[in-house]
Amino acid sequence: MNQTAPQSKISWQLLFTLLMFAFMYVPILILAVYSFNESRFSASWTGFSLKWYASLLQDSRLLSSLRDTLFVGCFAVSISAGLGTMMAVGLFKYRFPGKSLYRGMSYLPLIIPDIAIAVATLVFLVSIGLSRSIWTIIAAHIVFCLAYIAVVVSTRLSSLNPHLEEAALDLGATPTQAFIKVLLPELMPAILSGCLLAFVLSMDDLLISSFTAGEGANTLPMEIFSRVRTGVKPDINALSVVLILFSGVLAFTAEYLRYQSDRKKLS
Amino acid sequence: MATSTPPPVSRPQSSGLRYNVSKFAEPLVLLAPSGLWLLLLLVAPTVLILELSLIPGFRLGQLAGGYGLGNYLQIFQAIYLPVIGRSLFFAFGAMCSSLILGFPVAYWIAVMAPARWRNLLLVAFVLPLWTSSLLRAYAWIAILRPSGVLNLLLGAIGLPGQDLLNRPPAVLIGMTYSFLPYMVLILYASLEKLDKRLLEASADLGATPQQTFWKVTVPQTMPGIAAACLLVFISSLGDFVVPELLGGAASMTVSRLIYNQFLGATLNWGFGSSLSMILILGVSVAIALLIKYGDRDGATLT
Known about the structure:
By secondary structure, chain A is an all-alpha fold. Chain A has helices spanning 12-35, 51-58, 60-93, 99-111, 114-127, 134-158, 163-170, 175-204, 207-212, 220-228, 234-266.
């Protein structure tokens, strides 16, 4: 390109962008710094300490809520991966009466506010007399997980070469073979990044879990919420740092997958 | 059900009876499970909420009365009307401040930054979205509380301390912080598609940078701006975590009020359901505007 724009001079937009980057990251850094602070109450620095991290490891209530969260996330996402992919492929390949209605329904979980979904699910569970447990949390999480996975997969589907599958069919593959050997490998990066997104959303969900949880089921956001309502807790600072690092790794994996599939698309 | 008779689009070499079976079986297998799941756990419950909202004063374990609009009339009482107004104010405020803060960032990344850094910069900016929204709101408690970081800094340079936590400004700050990445993401998508030659042409024809911005850049990216604004508006309107953690008792919003009707002290399910329907209605109106005026790319990003 011929654009050798004078980027060397510092524009106000650049400075402003830097300021906004600081706005996004400083709160997270502050949490990180305070997680190493000796003092329990003071906002000023009283010395370096790892004791809040040590107290995390001994907090059995927190650890069991972490286990619940991971269980819900893994279970809901692995079921949604199948359902969501099938839904995206079905919507892409077939035309049928009521299709736009079906598609509209598939967007509902992304549109309706969490609180409204949570309330509706609670009322529904009570009205059919199903007792609430960790399984009802999973059932409710599948609703939004499958919708997000379907959206990510359909974006990928619409950029695929539609003739690949036809070619496989022409060459004598059965529809199932064509799906497994041709379409599925092409969709894999999108399915995986959709799963990561769904997993992060499931791990982040407070409202739907709170409304559908039964006796004994307690997810991490529910536990964190009940603790931070009453003020700043240094062990929660330490937990934040651990979780932020964890989700940072997930984010990088998802972006890398997307980058890879974009590159494949270009080549 | 809508999924029961789905003829496939076109399939080469549809040979005889075997295909006729799979013609219906395949789409049914693909679409029915998710469809049923969504119908059962999302559509049916929402219809149930609609019904409940029409039973005035419905409480769990009580005998249900007849249908009526009592719950909706209750919303328009003097105690609850300010709650609706406050929710709209927070959503609108968060939308405006994210637009003002987000546009220069998206513009710099999409138009002025070196091309090979653009994707990385964008990913870095929206990275905080991947972390827990609960913890990001919590981080602001540590900053804004009376003995927090902000007052520590203000004190250090000799300025009077501010008591922002548990007051409306804290909610606006928290919501802006939460949803600014969405704003930048969608504005970027729109600004990236902007034809840079238009900007050069405008400059060549003697327009000042301000004129170029207002007469070329803004009109060209209007669909993206609309999509981004409505997305932030919708997300803020339904947000529970930020007003609950940062707003204190004075910042009751619709979502918090709904929460209280079900998990809080009040337990008025009928009233909570009608509030929930109002919230869904508000969001649907915003979505209808998005579909009418926004661009498709923005809509699919949500």
